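User: What would this chain look like folded?
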Amino acid sequence: MAGKTRAAMMEETRGKLLLSARQSFAKHGFSGTSMDELTAAAGLTRGALYHNFGDKKGLLAAVVDQIDAEMAARARDLGASADTLWEGLLAEGMAYIQMALDPEIQRIVLLDGPAVLGDPSRWPSQNRCLDATRDAVARLTAEGVLRPVDIEAASRLLNGAALNAALWVAASDDPARTLPRAQEAFRLLAEGLLADR
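Assistant: Here's the prediction, encoded as structure tokens.
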């Protein structure tokens, strides 16, 4: 049987580290995660972590990117099942806020992520979400569903509203009670962009 290629071995190592980190960050938080325990759980060394991610912060950035991409895909799937592009865009934002109740997302992406990595609007994963929102807003504006609006401004405000609502839900003392308030406010803000019918 032929051996694995170097690229396949590197990808396997990255996958093991990401899985181990994701489990540890979710359970212990970023500051409570020991690099030695994390790498041992993956059956690897600290050297593998440094080689693949630079440091623990780089590993967190990769885990956040992975989870945020999964969040975006889940929201997109919900949006795609809506009857109209507008309803889909609204459903995506509402779903993103709803995901703040998921303990893994809450701790890793919405609490530790900003605390360690800084402003989420500068994360690559958030910029990919912004690209998708921008495309939808441009189409909805061209179709006359939305008022004539600056596409960039509206897209950034919609994305920012959903993100900040999710951050608020995650950080609140009672996320389940905060969620409907955040979603309702997001919906009302978004509907302000609709053209008069």
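The chain has a mean pLDDT of 92. If you want, I can go into more detail on any region.
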